[in-house]
């Protein structure tokens, strides 16, 4: 039964999500909480882990959630179900999109999708930030340190990003977090 639930949930996410992994986070969270596969805090840890590991964020999250729900087979089912709608859509729409390449209706459709995807990405960022802030405030003794880390990371990314690899910033932040916490 869990495999059917995983397939339906991740097929639905793959079918109705536009804008990549970050735009899918609200749908993931809804499905994860509805089925009780993990808590919101566990899911936010999966989001962070999915961003750190190589590969598409959406696929990584599907693999981790599926693995938590039903082991390796669950990870396989969730990942397959997530990718299936895109594969089917690409196969079905390739010739159609080529024929309507400069159609104004197609341009308007994709403009609307981009706007919705931006809103979903913003919402995902809001969810992650509010969850992190709430966790930081619960552990008040660490909130000043966590806040300082956020400010330093944002400043470093904005000021030195063209000169410093983002990977280096992540590694430094991980070591500081490990050392401090």
Structural account:
- The protein has a domain at about 1-105.
- Helices cover about 85% and strands about 0% of the residues.
- It is built from seven helices and no strands.
- The longest helix is centred in the middle third of the chain and has 43 residues, at about 55-100.
Write the element-wise H/E pattern from the N-terminal end onward.
HHHHHHH
Main beta sheet: none
Radius of gyration: 19 Å
- Mean pLDDT value: 81
Helix content: over 70%
- Oligomeric description of these chains: single chain
> What are the segments in which pLDDT stays under 50 over at least 5 consecutive residues?
none
What's the total count of β strands? Answer: 0
| Count of individual helical segments | 7
Structural class: mainly alpha
So what's the overall shape?
globular
Percentage of residues in DSSP E strands? under 5%
Span between termini: 40 Å
List keywords for this structure.
181 residues, 7 helices
What is shown here, in short?
The chain is mostly helical and 181 residues long.
Draw up the topology in text.
Layout lengths: L1 H15 L4 H15 L4 H13 L4 H43 L4 H35 L1 H21 L5 H15 L1
Helix pairs in contact: 1-2, 1-4, 2-4, 2-5, 3-4, 5-6, 6-7
